[in-house]
## 1
Amino acid sequence: SEMCIRDRYMNILIIDGQGGKLGKQLVNSILKRYPEHNVTVAGTNAVATSSMLKGTQLRGATGENAVIVGARKADVIIGPVGIVIADALLGEISPAMAVAVGQSAAVKILLPVNRCDNLVAGITDQSINVIIEDALDKIGKIDNA
């Protein structure tokens, strides 16, 4: 399908926790494919934030309030499915974070990572690269005009 023509850049918020490995892969892939958009990261902990920011000039912040504020300003929120489930990611997603992401007007692209007691039915185990590629395709289909 063809890319939608946008009249402005999108604000993309990447949220991740634990070691930030998934978030870092998202950062690298999004910056490469969509360098025109504004990307911000919000880590649930300092290690995740640091991992996502490493080697980039991006802006990022850590913790509950960073996620809440970021969700308010984002056009697109992307991260593991746990970012909308209170107490997910081994307890790193607070109820306030899950509510902020869920109530955000942003388009949510949730990666079906089957771990930490949250399993997504109907999804076969795919490599993280395949999941990220699909997420990138979804970003390209967002009509943000």
## 2
Amino acid sequence: MATLILLLPIVPAAVAAIIAVAGWQPATAWLPTVSCLTVTGLGITLAAQVLDNGPVSTAAGQFRVDAVSALMVILIGAVGTIASTYSVAYLRTELMAGTTTPHRARLFGALMQLTIAAMCVVVISDNLGVLWVAIETTTIATVLLVGHRRDRTSVEASWKYLVLGSVGVATALMGTVLVYFVSRHSGGDASTALNWSSLVARAPNLDPGALRVGMGFVIVGYGTKAGLAPLHSWLPDAYSQAPAPVAALMAGVLSTMSMYSLLRFKVIADIALGPNYVRTLLLVAALLSLLTAASLMVTQRDYKRLLAYSSVEHMGLIALAAAIGSPLAMSAALLHMTGNGLAKSVAFSTTGEMLFATGTTRIDGIRGLLHQRPFIAGTFGVSLLALLGLPPFSILASEIAIIRAGVNGGLAWAVAIALVVMLVIFTAVLVHTLNILAGSAEGTVTAQPPTEHVTTVTARVPLVAGLVVAAVIGITIWPISTLLHKAAEVLAR
């Protein structure tokens, strides 16, 4: 089993190297999909092992997989499979239309796999310093991916992402250094001073004053990378300008990696400081994120930015669950990560097909899409229904669990605010969606489609499969119920 842990980042890294050398061509185009399916399979195998025998570690304890890690590996593999499979159709269309070049396609394929490899390192690393290095690696790789088109708006978005993302990871580094300082001064060995399992064991002996400062830096830093308000402004620009498969990967699982990092640090802080300090910070970030998302989604004119602000909303809901902190709330947070990841990756992938078909990302530039492009409209509409928390999708179950946990945990006031804001968001998204899918063409700002685009089977399969998996988890949580329960026990101390 120790070998399987090391294979998690090695497989996508090897595929990245192959694409970098051989280029994006028919012989290599499907390798990323194979890589992500392999990661998913390894995650399922490790999850079974963890549930039977407890956490698995290797490399002298530096890499460790517990129930939380295993769940995140499966999510990385699933979202990566959707994005990578759709990338085959996406890049094929771009190459045929002349909107990208073989060189850029090569870079695209290699960087996508490098990002997936780095995310695997994030979730299997027991060392919080290595975790930070992996998060920084994902930032560098995705900055280049956001600027894939190399026009003015995409380059501007990538620079904004680079600046604010770097501020976030630098702030998180300061917090990580302070945690190391606290750990060493509590008698921690240099080789294990930043190991999460060691810090949890020694948390009662950590200096609360310095740790409180360090946790403040960590929450601000990783909160910025996750897209929590008020330092979220990079997110709508980056997601709206990134190629559809890149936005799918970033919104589906990359932001979740920063939330995952926050949850790991939160366990240490809750034991050493009690729950109130981190709870207060997360509550402020959660409610501010929900309010910010609602205010901007009501008047939104771009459907990719609408989805981007939906990510701010869902990161806020996960932060709210984390602030509540009970086993039910942590289970809901992990389930919400899963449901949001699957639905958001499908939604953003579908925007690629919408752009190819209509030539615009403006909401007022598309009307009656359901009649003109039934498959694209249907997939986009269903993915948005999933994100709004309608049955049969799992986000409904996770939101109900967050409400229950909040009321039981004495935070009914915060849950009430969240519910009001979510109602505003629900109405705004529903109105925008109905206008796109069934609205009248009268007064529409039209755009000339760049090509006579046809959605291929290669594009259809991952989109349908992602929605089917999200619905199955919503109908019966059985495939991951035990894993969720064990993971919640790890995080709710």
## 3
Amino acid sequence: LKEGPTELGKLLAALLAADINIFGSYALLTRPRGRTALALHVEDNECAISVLNQHGFQILGQSDISR
């Protein structure tokens, strides 16, 4: 997520508009590329990835956050 108070709201609004259920979420302690990262457990991974990419969010995989 980019710095600022509205990014989380934009992310949640994008998932809500696409009717994607969120089962759980947590903030990652590591800061990939100096930004805040949020781990999400969603109903449909492929759909969520597509929607978030369309809204300008960068999706990270395990290799992006592993040491």
